[in-house]
Every structure is written in structure tokens, then in C-alpha cells.
Design goal:
single chain, mainly beta, Immunoglobulin-like, Jelly Rolls, six-stranded mixed sheet, five-stranded mixed sheet, 3 helices, 2% helix, 47% strand
């Protein structure tokens, strides 16, 4: 599990954190260049779903796209021959400024551009010149900045290289462009079928790995890549391709060249494998609709499985009639303790030691298992049978018996046997024993069979042989060979004619009716117990005889009712049989999809497609086998076991905000268990859904392993926890002169704001009437772009006591305002200053009545007169400010 999870996480690391569907404004959705000219009537707007694929920093000779992507589109090129690649971008509006960049992705991916732009950039132009632009060879440079030429050198390319081109409309108009590749000397229009470029067999580390990464030599269409287009054969097979995934495809992209194949069962054995590509319909095609062709690509896996040494292999045959065959001399070593499983050709386990002994003649395979789920396969090896006696009757001599006598014989039979023959048994057509020596002598006319039994009870049969009759009346003693059969087997009838003239005509009939023949030795195939009648004629008289053939019925298999199971699980088949003795042997197929094909109710392997199974049976007592197998169909419904974990209500949350995680499992058996893990690590429930509250700002990865009792699958979801806005308004209580205003800053540029005074701007300004002491409470709610909110507030107190500021009338400054009270004219004298002074006139309500600025003379003196005669009688304030001077003077106009 750990190995699979690590590999899975490594695979996920290639994905962007936010899974958006790429468009042609994104590198992963780039338009394939399949022809030499493209016309785009309108400009693209924005930068797609992946807006930051090009950095905005740097300059030539590195990144020249100082604005990054801007109203852009992407193209990609697969080079078919060596040469120079060039193109021209002709804006539909000659006053438009189009910029562009070319990146080499032969050994890189779209997501690599941002951090490796200097290494991947082949050519770039950010010239401010409007109109025609491109690498058309009218400049020798491969990179142009804002003040450079709109042209670059043509780009040297070689067969097999892959490039992407970003075209951006800096002018941000609505006018499009024409794109012309005709000046290229290299062939860049793809007319070659895609092929597998590399299989990353070295990434299959350890046993129980069920994935295999591979890469095409160019991008292929995501919607054409299906499990049925691939196959794997090799040790431990057959393998079912359960899924195939590409990174861009998983994000909704159109094209991808790198994929991961998922197989069942997992890889568990060292050895030579073959990766099969099938040209199914509809075929996998590249971006320019060139189809793939069938291919078989060998690869080797070294998983650390046990090593099986066969140099000392010794196979001893089984003696006929005995279970004394053996397979010995093997040795095995591995990383852990080993166990052994021997199976016969039906998948039945017949041994659990490294030496297989005391077995009958058959074909056997060995599985060597370690504790790391690794398996090494040995065989198949055949234990042959030997020692069967051979009866050679090529030179046999059959001597007919005289009429009325018993002087016939069957002699000169030769027996070739490794072992001593212990029994010779001659029997007549009634089954009576008539001899116990190799030569049969002194017998009357009739049919005789020989059975030979050696010291190991191995038997051989010969005959029947017919001993004729010399002289005497016409006779017939018909026989059948064999006399006991399974329904439909062939039987040879023999007349056993003798005496008479020696020349015979034959008429065969049967009970039940239906058979007629005039042959001497006809062949029949009865389906029920049948008596065959023979009438012979020697030209003078007739003779008649009968022979009975016993027919055993064929057993009828019943493979059970068709089943329907969820995708990717196993089931049990339910076999039975009828007709015959009632004792049956069961044989199922296909053997490779069954745990043991020689049992009545076998378990299947995990099934990923609707599969027919066939059952044939044999009557254990009669040896009769079913005429035809019975079929049962196991229908596989639903889809692959899958999980698409999600967070709710979205994927970005604020510190302290509660959210939900959902596994969203589907397919498979429908009965799931869950194991959740995370980065950073934390303890999580094992339920399908649960709530979570996080208190640290971070990006979190939540992984879920879903098991349906038969298979496992992984998924992940990314959750971002953002901090709440930090609002700094200053002290909780702030004092301000009644004649002043205060501006508060809520910070957090780009957020939304709501002040308690109704203001919705980042800044708000507070003031008062100037009549006297005025405490005001002000609060603000700030919501940042991630939706996180914060609230705070302060109290601002406007008070006359704070109208004298720092440096009021310092010892070096002489400040006088007179007369006070006044009838309208006020004299202001300020001595001992060197900088400009401001004088603000305010009414008692705080209304500004005028602002004045005065510069001191060479002696540091300001002497000015203010005319307030146009103001009605009342109280007024003069606010006098300067460097290190702040003074408020209340005056009375009478």
C-alpha cells in the first residue's frame, strides 16, 4: 500500500493545484499545427484558465515577455524533418502590436515553462513595433526586447522536437491576425503516425505495483485513449488494462503524450513483458489525425521477486498406473521467506514444497511467493508417462478352428514392456476368460480380446480378433467393438461368419429401428442401448445373429444462472450436471480467469468486462464427457472503482472556517472503506465524509484510499487555508483636535470594505463640528479576495485639549495674535521660525473659512494681518502650523 501511495502522490505532483479545463489559450490546450497557414479574424481576450504560464520578469536573452501572457493563444508544433522553422504574424490591424515566444518542450512540459523559461525559450519577440512580426530571418537575433526589431532569426529544428508558440496581443484590440509558416525549410506539418517513445519500466518498483508510465513521441488525443487500446502480456498474466490516465487529460485537456496505464493483477514478477498497442476503432490519433498502428513493444521488469534457479532441474516421468512422477532440483532465493504453489493444467493446487513428488503424468507450473507480494513463475513442465505395455500384432497369426472343434488359435503377438507382465487375459465376446498366456490356443470360432497387465497394474488392450471356422454349416457370431460406449461414440460391427460356402452377403438391421447396412463391418454411432441384427447368406442358406451395444448417456452440464456483478470484483460460479451416474468431474474455462478451473463452484478473478464462462463435465464412473459445454455469462455492470474527492463548499477557506471533505467513491462493488491521509500529516476519520476546521495558513493535500473489498483506488483534493485580513487602525482610543480630521486606513489592497459610517472605500475620514468634546466609534469589515473577513473598530475622540500639539510655542518661537477680541482685523506675529507656516481659519462648526501660507523674512519673523470683517460676530479658531509648531488660537469677533 505504501509503495502504491508514494507512486500515486508522485504522479499527482505533476498536476497544477487548481484543476481547470485547459483551453487553446493555455499551453495544455494548444492548437496543433497541421497546415501552413492560419487565419484568426478576432483577437483572443484574457489568458485562459492557466493565466501565469509565462513569468513577467527577466529580459533578453532570457524571458522577453515582460507582460507575460496577454490576450494570448498557444500553438504546438511536432517537427517531422530537420531544417529551419519560421513564421510570420500579420495583424489584421496594422497598428496592432503582437508579441510572441517559442518554447522547446521536447523534454519538458507546459508547467515547466514558468520556472525554466530561460532554458526552454528558443526565440522571443517583445518589440514595440506595430505590424508584421515573427522569426522570418530578417534579424540574426533570437530575442528582441521592447526597443528591438519585430523580427528574429529562423529557428533550427530537428526531427521529433516539440515546440509551443505563445502569441499575445499587447494592443488589446479586437483585431486578429494571420499566421504563416510557409518560409520554414523543415517539415513541421505532422503526417506521421504516433508511436510509443519510451516505457518507464524502471519506475515499477517492488511488487503490487499496478501502474506503468509510458510516453508517446508526440501528443495524442485524450478522447481516443482508452483501456481497450492497450494490452500487457508477461509473467503473471493475463493482465487486464483497467484504466489509462494522462495528466492534461485528467484536467480536461485535449492533448497529452505522457500516460499511466493501470493493470490488474498488479505486476509481481521479474521477467520479459510485452506492451501491446491495438489499432481499435476509433483509433488513437495524434493532433493531426494520424492514427496509431498495432505494435508490440518488449520491456523488462526487475521487481526484486524471488530468483528461481533451474540449472539442476530434474523431471522424472510417472510410471503408467502410478503417481510417482516428480519435478526436483529447483532452488529459489529471495528477500524474505518463500512459499511454493504447484498447480496442474486446470489450476488445481497439487503441491506446496519446492520439490513436486508423487504426481501422475500431467503439466505443472510453480509459483514462488515472498512476503512482499512478489511471485516468480516457473514452468510449465510436463511429467510424461512411461512404461505402458505395447502390443505389436503386425505379425499375428490367427488359425481358424475346424467345424465342431476347438482348435483355433491366436499366436505370435509381441509385447514390448519396460516392466514385467504379470497377467495375460484372453476373453471371448461374452466376457468369459478363455486363456491366460500370451498365445491363445485351443479355442472355437469366435471373437477374442487380450488384456495385458504389468507389475504396476498398467494395462494394455488388443483385439478383438476373429477366429474363423473351417467346414460345417453356415454360422454367424456378430460382435461389436467396443460393446460399451458413450452416446455418439463410434462402434465397429463384425459379422463373425463361418462355414457354408465361404462367400457371404450381409444384411444389418437394428432395434430400435433406424439402421440398415450391407457392409461386412459397418461403423455405427448409437445414442441409446441398441441391438444389432445380422442376416448372412452364402448363396444357399441364411444364418442370423445379434449383438448388443450398451450406450451410457452423456452428462449434461449446467453452468448456472447468468450473473450481474459490479465492475472489478470476483464472483463464484455455480456448476452442476445431470444424466448419468451422478458423480462428475468439472472443467471450466477460460482457465486464466478462474482461481481453480477443476472445481464445481470456482471463484473467478476480478472481472472488468462481461465474460462468458464454459462448463464441461465428465461422468466419473463411465468416463463419458458432455457433448457440448454449457455457458454462463457474468455481466460486469457499472464503471471502474473510482474516487473524486472534493471539499465543500469550495477549495479555499479561511483560518477557523469549518469545511467538509467528501470521498465521492463510485463504481466497483458499491461497498467502500476509506483511509484518509494528508500533507501536512494529521489524524483523519475513516468515513466517506467529515468536517474539518484548520487554524494554520497553508496548502493542504488530502488523499483518500478507497477499497471496495476487491480493488483499491486513490484520489486527492487540495485545500487552501488563507488567513483573515489583518487590519491596523492604530490605538483603540485616539484623540484628535476638534478642528482636525483623521483618515483611517483599513489596508489589504484589493479587498472589499464596509465602514460603520457607510463608506465602502479602503480609507475613511472622520471629523467633527468643532463645537466641543465629541467621541466617535468607527468600525470596519474587510473581506479579502479569498472571502476571508475580519472586523475591528476604534474610538476617535475630538477634544479641544488636543488642539495644542507638539512644539507649541517652543522657547525659540514667539507667537502673538492680537487684538482679541477684535472687530474684524487680526494681527499675527511669529518670530524665531525658518520655515513656511500655515494659518487655517475655522468657524466654531469646523467650517473652513480660509487657508494661508506665509514665509518668514531674513530675520525669521512673520508679521501678517488677517481681515475677518466679512464674518459675523462669534467664536472662530486660527490653527497655526509649521515645523515643530502647532497652535490653536480662539478669537472673538464682536
Amino acid at each position: 500500500l505504501v509503495k502504491v501511495l508514494v507512486a500515486f502522490i508522485a504522479f499527482l505532483s505533476a498536476f497544477p493545484l487548481v484543476a481547470q479545463i485547459p483551453t487553446d489559450q493555455d499551453c495544455m490546450g494548444a492548437i496543433p499545427v497541421c497546415e501552413g497557414y492560419y487565419y484568426q479574424p478576432n483577437s483572443y481576450s484574457g489568458s485562459g484558465n492557466y493565466p501565469n504560464e509565462i513569468p513577467t520578469t527577466g529580459s533578453c536573452p532570457g524571458n522577453c515577455m515582460s507582460s507575460g501572457e496577454k490576450n494570448c493563444v498557444w500553438y504546438y508544433v511536432t517537427v517531422q524533418s530537420d531544417g529551419l522553422m519560421g513564421f510570420e504574424i500579420m495583424p489584421n490591424n496594422a497598428n496592432d502590436d503582437y508579441d510572441w515566444a517559442v518554447y522547446n518542450l521536447t523534454n519538458a512540459r507546459c508547467e515547466d515553462i514558468f520556472s525554466n523559461v530561460a532554458q526552454l525559450q528558443e526565440s522571443c519577440n517583445w518589440s514595440g513595433t506595430k505590424g508584421l512580426t515573427g522569426p522570418n530571418g530578417q534579424s540574426g537575433s533570437s530575442c528582441q526586447g521592447a526597443s528591438g526589431s519585430p523580427f528574429c532569426a529562423m529557428i533550427p529544428v530537428t526531427n521529433g522536437q516539440i515546440f509551443v508558440i505563445n502569441i499575445s496581443n499587447y494592443s488589446s484590440t479586437q483585431f486578429g491576425y494571420a499566421l504563416d509558416f510557409s518560409m520554414s525549410t523543415a517539415q513541421i506539418y505532422d503526417d506521421v503516425s504516433p508511436e510509443i517513445e519510451e516505457i518507464f519500466a524502471d519506475e515499477v518498483q517492488g511488487c503490487s505495483t499496478n501502474t506503468l508510465r509510458f510516453i508517446w513521441d508526440e501528443n495524442v488525443r485524450c478522447d481516443r485513449v482508452a483501456p481497450s487500446a492497450f494490452g500487457i502480456s508477461g509473467p503473471g498474466g493475463p493482465y487486464t488494462i483497467t484504466d489509462v490516465q494522462g495528466i492534461a487529460c485528467g484536467l480536461g485537456g485535449t492533448w497529452e503524450k505522457e500516460y499511466i496505464l493501470y493493470v490488474d493483477p498488479p505486476f509481481a514478477s521479474n521477467g520479459e513483458y510485452v506492451f501491446h498497442v491495438y489499432s481499435i476503432f476509433p483509433s488513437i490519433v495524434d493532433a493531426c489525425n494520424n492514427p496509431v498502428y498495432d505494435a508490440d513493444i518488449p520491456f523488462t521488469l526487475d521487481l526484486g521477486a524471488p530468483t528461481l534457479t533451474t540449472s539442476g532441474l530434474a523431471i522424472s516421468p510417472a510410471t503408467c498406473g502410478m503417481d510417482n512422477g516428480s519435478i526436483t532440483g529447483l532452488s529459489a532465493s529471495g528477500q524474505t521467506a518463500l512459499t511454493y504453489v504447484w498447480k496442474n493444467s486446470y489450476g488445481t493446487v497439487v503441491g506446496n514444497e519446492i520439490d513436486l513428488i508423487d504426481v501422475p503424468a500431467e503439466t505443472y507450473t510453480l509459483e514462488v511467493h515472498d512476503l512482499m507480494d512478489c511471485i516468480t513463475y516457473g514452468g510449465p513442465w510436463e511429467v510424461e508417462e512411461f512404461g505402458v505395455p505395447e502390443i505389436d500384432d503386425d505379425n499375428i497369426i490367427i488359425t481358424s478352428s475346424n467345424y465342431g472343434a476347438s482348435n483355433g488359435s491366436v499366436t505370435d503377438t509381441v509385447i514390448d514392456s519396460t516392466f514385467t507382465i504379470e497377467e495375460y487375459t484372453w476373453a471371448d465376446d461374452q466376457g468369459s476368460v478363455v486363456g491366460s498366456d500370451l498365445d491363445l490356443i485351443g479355442v472355437p470360432t469366435g471373437y477374442y480380446t487380450l488384456e495385458v497387465v504389468d507389475e504396476n497394474t498398467c494395462t494394455a488392450l488388443a483385439g478383438p480378433y476373429f477366429v474363423g471356422e473351417i467346414g460345417g454349416p453356415l454360422t454367424t457370431n456378430p460382435s461389436a467393438n467396443p460393446t460399451v460406449i458413450c452416446s455418439g461414440d463410434a462402434v465397429t460391427l463384425s459379422p463373425g461368419a463361418g462355414g457354408g460356402s465361404g462367400s457371404y452377403d450381409y444384411i444389418w438391421t437394428s432395434t430400435p429401428e433406424g439402421f440398415n447396412s450391407t457392409l461386412e463391418t459397418p461403423v455405427v454411432t448409437p445414442t441409446e442401448n441398441t441391438t444389432y441384427h445380422l442376416q448372412i447368406f452364402d448363396g444357399y442358406i441364411f444364418a442370423e445373429g445379434d449383438v448388443q451395444v450398451t450406450v451410457h448417456p452423456l452428462p449434461v452440464p449446467d453452468a448456472g444462472e447468468d450473473q450481474s456483478i459490479p465492475h472489478g470484483i470476483y464472483t463464484f460460479l455455480e456448476g452442476s450436471a445431470n444424466t448419468g451416474s451422478g458423480d462428475y468431474l468439472y472443467y471450466w474455462s477460460p482457465v486464466e480467469k478462474l482461481v481453480d478451473a477443476a472445481t464445481q463452484n470456482p471463484q473467478t478473478t476480478n472481472l472488468y468486462e462481461t465474460t462468458p464462462f464454459f462448463l464441461t463435465v465428465e461422468d466419473e464412473q463411465t468416463g463419458c464427457a458432455a457433448a457440448d459445454p454449457d455457458q454462463v455469462i457474468v455481466e460486469v455492470t457499472g464503471g471502474f472503482l473510482s474516487t473524486n474527492p472534493s471539499s465543500f463548499p469550495d477549495s479555499v477557506f479561511c483560518i477557523g472556517e469549518t469545511f467538509w471533505l467528501h470521498a465521492n467513491a463510485g463504481g466497483g462493488s458499491g461497498d467502500y472503506t476509506y483511509i484518509w491521509t494528508s500533507e501536512p500529516e494529521m489524524t483523519l476519520p475513516t468515513t466517506e465524509s467529515f468536517s474539518l476546521t484548520l487554524y494554520e495558513e497553508n496548502t493542504y493535500y488530502f488523499y483518500v484510499l478507497v477499497n471496495d473489498g476487491y480493488n483499491e483506488t486513490f484520489g486527492y483534493v487540495t485545500v487552501t487555508v488563507d488567513p483573515a485580513p489583518i487590519i491596523e487602525l492604530g490605538d483603540a482610543v485616539q484623540y484628535v483636535c476638534v478642528h482636525e480630521t483623521i483618515t483611517l486606513d483599513a489596508g489589504n489592497e484589493g479587498a472589499s470594505y464596509l465602514w460603520s459610517n457607510g463608506d465602502t472605500n479602503r480609507y475613511t475620514t472622520l471629523g467633527t463640528t468643532g463645537l466641543g468634546y465629541d467621541p466617535q466609534y468607527i468600525s470596519v469589515n474587510v473581506m479579502n479576495s479569498e472571502g476571508c473577513q475580519a472586523d475591528t473598530g476604534i474610538t476617535v475622540i475630538f477634544d479641544y485639549d488636543y488642539c495644542v500639539g507638539i512644539g507649541e510655542n517652543p522657547n525659540s518661537v514667539d507667537l502673538q495674535v492680537y487684538p482679541n477680541p477684535t472687530t474684524g482685523t487680526v494681527n499675527i506675529y511669529i518670530g524665531g521660525v525658518s520655515d513656511e507656516m500655515e494659518v487655517h481659519v475655522r468657524s466654531a462648526m469646523g467650517t473652513s473659512l480660509g487657508d494661508h501660507k506665509y514665509m518668514p523674512d531674513a530675520n525669521g519673523i512673520i508679521a501678517e494681518t488677517l481681515d475677518l470683517s466679512d464674518q459675523p460676530p462669534g467664536i472662530y479658531f486660527l490653527i497655526i502650523r509649521g515645523k515643530n509648531v502647532y497652535h490653536t488660537e480662539k478669537i472673538l469677533i464682536q
